[in-house]
Amino acid sequence: MKKIFPLLTGILLHYASVSAQSTDNDLYAQTSEVNNIMVQYEADAGSLHRFYFIENSPEHFARFNTLIKSYQQRLQQLNYDRLNVGAQVDYTLFKRRLQSAAEELQEAQQTYSSVKRWFPFAEKIYEAEQHRRRGDKPDAPALAAQLSEIAKEVARQQQQLATDSSLSFAQTRCGMATVKDLRSALNSVFTFYNGYDPLFSWWIPAPYKQLDSLLKNYSAAFARQETKKVQLPDDGSGIAGHPIGRAALVRGLQEEMIPYTPEELLAIANKEFAWCDAEMEKATREMGLGTDWRAALEKVKNSYVPPADQPAAMMKLYEESVGFLREHNLITLPPLADETWRMIMMTPERQLVNPFFTGGEEFSVSYPVSSMSQEDKMMSMRGNNPHFSRATVHHELLAGHALQEFMQNRYKTYRHFETPFWIEGWALYWERLLWDQGFAKTPEDKIGMLFWRKHRCARIIFSINYHTGKWTPQQCIDFLVDRVGHERANAEGEVRRSFAGGYSPLYQIAYMIGGLQFEALKKELVDSGKMTFKQYHDAVLRENMMPVEMLRAILLNKPIPKDFATNWRFYKL
Predict the structure, then answer these.
(1) How much is the average pLDDT of 549-568?
(2) pLDDT, tens digit, for every residue of 376-400?
(3) What is the DSSP letter of 345?
(4) 180 exposed, middle or buried (CB, 10 Å; 0-12, 13-18, 19+)?
């Protein structure tokens, strides 16, 4: 026993050391020196948002200004030079987030100040809500009289608003948001006391309902002002958006760490489009149709599956794509990610905005239903044929959006650096990679995959031309029909989604540009022999979402200067 005990002790100490190292490595894979500050900021901001839920109020502006400044000071206290590259990335991106939050708050405060004259009664409503938070007993008769006076003031302000044409688009939006906040504040007071406080329940319901109704009408008056500011294009599309202009595009690109001008992005898109045109012609010749790419596209569109067979067709494509990923050892596919994604059918209403399927853990299949018109049914079926879908099933599922979501919930979950250049760029990168790896088996497959690549180029072109005021929505629709080959209803859905679907102005640009960033990084790490495909792809997903330039710094272990400015020119024009 004396000889065995030291040996056993040594073995136990060895495994304890290995276990500790493993735990340390696992722990460091999930955190950084900036993590605690970021987590606390999110929690503090959440608490304040719930407490000061009326956003267009003086107390909200003042409290969040204080919060942001306090965290900027905490961040500055970290010894930046002693941070590793991953922590420097967190520092840089969190610093950017705080600065962006401060600028947005200042802009909101300035806009609110410019419309404050339309709400001379706001402070009285805010004050009533402030007392409600701590359960102060209200003076019901006095409050009823106050609500009645406010109702008269709202009616007077609405009459004046009807004859005023000086409000900007931002001011009308702020006016509607302010009315919404005021109604929420009143509702929180009413629902707290009504039915509980006898005097409140006797005095308040009638003046409250009158005032709430008048505020609802007041909001509609601001909405009418907004409609006047948004000029519907006289082009027959009926799609209204809000072009932001070149200067705003440039600012957005800088914030997203894309060091290219809108004009340079157009040049990139046109260069990629030319490549697609050449490859489309090759595939058309393989189909025996000469140079008539439209005839080839028409043949591919007519390969749609009959009603009720679309889910099975999508499942077949999924199994082929996942089999391809495994066969080529391209990425780790966790069994649970493969097990837990699921299908739903997209509603006709959603198809008006997004005519093609969407993905993630929930894979939404786009296909016509019985209530749609014959024309819409055919456009949906033709636009979602199996050859088109060959490019996008892996985009939406594995190794695209579904795997992104799966890994985001498991690695560095504190990194909330949301950007479409990572979200959509990664999924688009897989379309390009699988093309390069020979996933398109037939010329029809190539036509289908090239259709989508042309579409990504077109998104850059029509988005920039629209937001710089050069194209109307109808011109964007025509471009998708004429140069990409979309069904017209599908093109209308794409443009409506882009400009009136709640997406950021840079969202559609992010697909191709983000994909090119991931491709450039792949060349640096995989083509150079520093990593295998699997090592590269697994490493990307374990760092979570961020601008790809920051991801590059981590994977190449390139220290980031504290005064960092975006400079990675990932595409040679």
Answers:
(1) 97
(2) 889 889 999 999 999 899 999 999 9
(3) E
(4) middle
